[in-house]
Every structure is written in C-alpha cells, then in structure tokens.
C-alpha cells in the first residue's frame, strides 16, 4: 500500500480514482472525512494518551504513527543520543534478536508423518500380519507400496517453511545504529526497540521505525520502495514523523529514525506469523480421508464376519511358522484388497503431470493438491491494480476538457510540455507519452527552467522556449481547482469546470488542470489562461473483460478486493462488465460487529457472499473475507502480490501469486502465475477441471474395486470356505492401479461449472458396481467349481470341487493308476520316503491313518482350487479395470473415445495379468513348508476330463501338494489356468455390457449432471441490492495541509481503517513474545520495551 508522498500537483477530483495503487504523487487523506469537516493535518500529532487504542494487563497498544517523535522517545525511554551498550544488551536479552523466528522440521519426521493416516495404518497392520506369518513376499510388496506413497507425498508437497524463509531473506543484514553516542555498523539482528538508526539510499529498513528530523519546509522526504511489502513498484515519500516498515528499501534520502518494533513484532514479522499460524488441510486430503474411512469400515466389517465364520463355523486352526495359519493370511486379501493402496500415488502423479501441463500455460503449481481445489473454486477474490488493470496511469483522451479557444490536442500538447524531461514521476511519464507527436515535440521546444512542486504554491511550472521564434511561455499543471482559480477568466469557466470535475469524480478519474501564461515578470503577475482538464485513470487490461465473461460462463464469481476506495472499484467493475455492489471494509466491519447492515442483507456472511467486492481493504481484511467465504462453504481463490497479501494467500483454498509478485507472496501461494492478468487463471481453471475429471474417474473406480474385492472374496471365503492369495491382490493393485496413472492423459471435457466431490454418488455407484461385479465373479466361480459347464460344453478340464464329484473322480483314477483307495499312503513308494512317513515315531495319526483316497481327494481339491484362483484373478483383473471406461463418461463407454495412453495402459496391465493367470506361480505359495504337512512329486494331482478320464499333471506346476487332513489343504497356492483365461475374457466382456445401463440408471436416480432435473449444480449467484451512486463534486476534495497541499484525496492511500493498526505496538506490562495470532484484532499487535523496565 502506498503512504504519503509528494510530487506532481495532481488532484484526485473524486478522492477515488481508477489509478494504479503504486502512483503516489502527493500526500493524501480519506475522502470520507472531508465532506463535512476538514481532516486533521497529517503533520499534527496527538498525545500518547490519545494514541492508546487498547489496554490490557500486559500493556497498552500505542499507535506510533499518531504520536510525535518526542512522545515516541518518552514511550521507549530513550533520548536522541540513543541507547548505551548496557541498555541495548538488557533489551536484547528481554525481547530477543531482530529476526523472524526460525522454524524448521525434521525431514525424517515429516517423511514418517505421511505414514500416519488411516490408509497407512491399515497397510501397516497388513504388513505386521504378513511378517508375523512369515509371508515375506506379501510383506515386501505391502511395505514397498507404503514407502512409495510416502515418498511421492513427501516430494510432491512443498516445504511449509519456504514462505517464512522468503520473508527472512528480505530483512536487512546490517544496520547503522547510534550506540554510546556514536554511529556504528552492526548486525540488524542486534537492534532493539529504542535504538536510533540511520537509514539512507540503497539500504533496507532494518526494523519498524519512526522517522526523525526537521518538519515543515526544511523536511526532505525519503523515497521508500515498499515492493517487498505490497508488490507495488513505485516508491512512496516518507516525511519526518512518518513510520517505515521493516523490509522496505530506501531509494532516496537519508534520515535518523527510532526503532519501535523488531523481529516478529514488526508489521513484516506479523505477516510471517500469520502465514506460519495458517495450516490448511488440503481438500483432497479430506476427500481421501473420507474415502479411506469408508473403505476401512467396509474392511472392518468383513474382517469380523470372516474371522467369526472361519474360526467359529469352519473351525479352522492356526499354528506358528510359515503357512501355519491360512485363515489369517487370507484375511490380508480383505485388508490389502479393500484399501485403495495406490490412491495417494495415483492421485499425486495425476496432479503432478497435470501441474506440468499447467506450467506450460503460465501457472506454476507450488502445492499439488491446490489443482483439485482450483477445479472446485467458485469464488475468486482478485486484486484490482495490476491484475484486473494495467497498473499504468493513462489519460482518458475522449474525456479531455479543453477551455476557450483550445482544442483537445492542444490540452495534450501543453500537458506534455509541462512534464519534466527524463523524469520518473508517474504523472510526467503519462503526460509525455499521451501526446500523439511526442517523438518530435522537443525538436521544436526546449525547457530552460522547471519549477517543481512545492507545498506552498501547489503546482509545477515549466518555462518553455519555442525554438523557431525564441518566444518563452510558462506552462502550469496542478490541481484543477487551483488552475481554474488562477485563470484570468475563472468566473467564466468555474461552472463548466466544476461540472467536468464532478463527472470525473463520478467515474473514478483523477483530474489534472493545465494553464499557460507569459514568461515575463514574476510568477505572481502572470496572466494565466486555462488550457483544459485531463482525466487520469488505470485502464483495465485489454483481455480482462473477456476473461471475466469466461469466468462467469465457467460458474466462477470474481470479487474485486482492492485497497483503493469503493468508487474506483465500481468504475473499474462497470468497465469490465462486473457487478458494482462494492462496499468499503468499514461497512463489513460494522456488519460483523452487529452495528448495522446495508439494506437487503441479512448478516455479515450474507454481505460477504453476495457483494461483488470490497474496497479500502487491508491484509487482515483479506484474511477475514476469505475465512468468512470458506465458512459459507465456498471454495475460495485469492490473488495477491505482496508480503501483506501472504496471510490471505495462505488462508485461501487456492492462493494465487500474480505475475511479478514478491518472493514471500510466491512462497505463501499455491499457484504462481508467470503471465500478467487473469487470463492465465481461466486457462488454469479449465486445466484443473480436466484433472479433476480424471481424479473423479479414478475415485469412482477405486471405490467400486474396494467394494468388489471385499464382497467378492468375503463371500467366497465365508460361503465356500475358499481362500485367495494376498500376493495376487497386491499384483492386482500394482498392475491395475498403476495403469490408472494413464488417466492423467485421458481425453476429458472440462466441467462447465465448478467441480465438487459428490461422495454420496461415488459411494452409492461404487457399491452398485462392486456388487454387480461381485455377482459376475460369483457366477464364474460357481459355474467353474460347482458345475461341469466348461468340461461338458467347452471340453476343458474340470475345476468342479463338489465333494461327490471329487470322490467319484478319485475312485475312478486310483485303480487306473494301479493303487487301492484304502491303502495307507505311506505304503506308496512315491510318498514313503517323504517327511510325513519317515518322521521319528512314525506317521502322524492324529486324524487317523492317511489313505490313498484321502490324499487323492486333498490333491484334487488343492489343484482345482489353485487353478480356479488364476481364473478368478484373471476375471477380477479384466472386469475391474474395464470399469474405468464406464465411469469416465456419461455416454456409452464403447462410443466415448478415451485417451491413447488409457488404452495402452489397459492393454499392458491385462497382458501381464493374463500371463500370470495362464502360467500361474508354479504352485506358490508352496504347501510343503509348514511342519512337514506337505508332499513333493504328487501322484494324484492330475487334471480331470469328461467321463472321469484323467489327464496329465497341470502345466507349470511344481507338484508340491499339502498333506490331507491338515490345515495346509486350505493354503492359497496358484497354478496357471492356461486356456481358461479365454473363458475369463469372454465372461468379463459379457458382463461388461450391463455396466453402461447400470450407469445411466444410477445417474438418473442420483441426478448426476442434472440427468433427471436438468440442474448441473449451479451455484446461487444472487446479487446484492444495487447501490445508489451519487456524483461527487468539489466538496469531495480533501483538506489542505502541508502534507496534502492540493487538497486531493488518494486513489492509492489505504483508508484509516486499513492502516490504523499497522504501526501499533504494545507498551507497559510485562514484555513477552507475541502469541500466535488468534484473531484479526491481534494481528497487528506487537511488543516494545515497557516504560518501567526501559
């Protein structure tokens, strides 16, 4: 924000012009205080008692801007000779060094923190169970996925300390300080409240200071660059008795000053404290937590059911050692399969790849999850100056008012001649650039003398010589009422001039008067002739109007949040086609305190929600506006460029640092624009909505898979006492979920409205899809294992596991192999030399003597179930991943073309899955490891064909089998199903055809995308009651004082409400470190030495 400055005699005719906030050519006052009475002159100070704005047991808050230097010295208990070294040492020990608190985090703890969430807990429990059962393969894969998720999250999220570090880097490393009666250079960190410092050209202001020195006509102001605080490029003028904030840069001049706040208690430090105190939880994280929580509940229910049925009904037992407890191992199928293991990885990679694409469009993403929030952003709070406008002062040539014989071109010509050559003053630059023949103007004229602005005469005068004739003339420019008053025909032009000034005021323009006169004699005797009036304003960017229109089309409401006054904002809004219901923050603060509301509003929240913008906004107000909108359930974006914007950028769901922003603003922002204006934001929103569509597709897919896995294998286990290997579930997650990364390049159409997570629809559709696919898998399982459909109709080997079928086949095969069914197994040569038969004390007879029939039945169950697992795995993999083509679009999935990489990923994932299903795992998990309860080189593990004809041993099989009548018969081994994979593909395709009709029925029932009602989730854009705008005339001028000699009101100076707390610090009571900010009122409170202890 600008402060008082003085330069060109430019009048703010309405007190509220549409001008860049960095243009501060003269001191200013608040127009709201000049209608009925004059404001207190800026150089008039009040007593410290009158500057006390709050009292508390731990001290009083004193506004150092309002008190004189003498009062400040008394408050800080120091003389103009400065502190002694002993006093400084005491204060340094008491108040700490003049630097921001350094906060850092242990990277290891940060990394481990990404493993501390519900999804990770479930994975960690699964890993513990796996290692307890000596299931090393599953343990390694689960842990690998756990660390992969944590690593991606750790790398993807930006360091939370970077904004603080950017602020710290801007502080001055050295300072010149008056200690023990002499000026020495010292580390800025050693400064304490009460020190007298010297600031000069090129130096960074080391702390919050109050300028000392002569007042009145001998006061030579400093030029201070506050870009580090506000992001505005032009310096402002600071006089004696003014305050300067830490982090500003001195561009011109030298002054002594007294330090009144250091470190975290400075205005600069409080911005940093607010950044550090803001800890938003990413919306995506909340969504993942809800999805994960639902998955965990589903998992928990099925674990309870499964354990109760398996141990209670089926009477399974557990033993120590590897493969000793198949029931608990099978429980990992529900735990691992039900957890969306790859969700953090897939979503993070999707966001990262999407962010890379956004960077090409000029939007650099600093926090990946902000992409998701930008897709749902429905309100954008945009700064005006430099974002909606060019931040470049311009002459509105169509509204130039010539007087008398002069033409519009004459006004522009004489205005250009009145500008000081080679000046960097904004007014001189714009006047020189606005004349059509500016390139050749000074070929015909020269300026031998230029009288700059001074607070007595209130104008500038250029003495101009025409080269051809040698004639001299004077050209004056200044406030329009002064120019009109000095004109010889003022009585004739006062009425028309006043009307024109009033018109400029109503449009938010600043006015400048130009007059010419002879060069002979003293200035006081010149006969001035008014040439005309020029309106100046900050024009909107050429693309802003179109950008606003596109934002509205996309369902995004743009609210103007500006430090300028309300009239400026309304005029700019009018030019851009925005709503003009713009209020100053005083209205909002009164509404929030319950002291009154504008007509048509029911509450402060209603005001914030329906207003088109707010003016005279201070950073703390931005923070408050964002917070109130968030509490009204809006997804809020905020643009900013300065340190003072950093808290609001951090608080917003999407903080956007505009092009040219300070490092601190960039550090606090989620997205940094590299192109000027808002057009880049619209492109980023469209890109973010496409990314959101892809994330929604994956979320629907992963929820459906969670329910499908839990219900499919939960039901098969509890109904049929059938186990499935955890290893295949992990491979399913690796291949299928890994392939989902391709969704980051899927073909999608951006939503026309802000996106929201419809979790109800996601969960309901997930349950329906999951149950439908569960039925398809159960139907395949039942057909393959309980009927002879594939054997009789397709002439494939049988997988029928019905007891009668298995016993009949064994009773037929055993004699064919030359054995008797009742023969003890240990009498068979192939088994007699194995561990069961050779153990000390003889074979285990706990369950009786094992016969050939017992072992044949056990081997047939084992082989058929092991092959069946490959078949079910193949079907689950194919049908599961195919769901993604259904949920990605509302049209028919076979007609809506997906992205090329989506097809490639599906193809590769299913090629690998098909290979694994066809060739199996060679019978892994091997059943011969658990206490000798297994055999090698089985005899009866052969395939079965029609007419109970036996075939050979299954392909790709180690011939290791479990021992009959042991828990080992339930081990979840896998044998390749060979040509059964064709059946799995055909089965999946048949059932796939029913998914699209189910999708449409769900969309109609849940009214997705307005299928039933036609509503697409439109956001209520109810407009606020329109305000009545009344033109303001000459009475809108500010009070004349030395600091405001032209009596004009600022376009750029923050209102008193904005800065009333910026220079306040706490005095008296016991000094203490500033607490974390707990509310807006405490944001600008700091500490200085108390009177008693100084």
Main traits of this protein?
1094 residues, 7-stranded antiparallel sheet, single chain, disordered N terminus, 12% strand, alpha+beta, 38 helices, 8-stranded mixed sheet
Shape: elongated
Strand order of the largest sheet: 12-26-25-24-13-21-23-22
Mean pLDDT, to the nearest integer, reads 81
What is the first-to-last residue Cα distance? 33 Å
**Overall radius of gyration:** 40 Å
Q: Looking at the chains present, what oligomeric state does this protein adopt?
A: single chain
Approximate strand percentage:
5-15%
Major sheet: 8 strands, mixed
What is the number of helices?
Answer: 38
Structural class: alpha+beta
Helix content: 40-55%
How many beta-strand segments?
Answer: 29
Sequence stretches where pLDDT stays below 50 over 5 or more residues: 1-45, 52-57, 1017-1060, 1069-1094
Could you characterize what this model shows?
- The structure is a single chain.
- The protein is elongated, with a radius of gyration of 40 Å.
- An 8-stranded mixed β-sheet has the order 12-26-25-24-13-21-23-22, sandwiched between helices. Strands 14, 15, 16, 17, 18, 19 and 20 form a 7-stranded antiparallel β-sheet that branches. Strands 4-3-5-11-6-9 form a 6-stranded antiparallel β-sheet, covered by helices on one side.
- The chain has 38 helices and 29 strands.
- With 1094 residues, the chain is an alpha+beta fold.
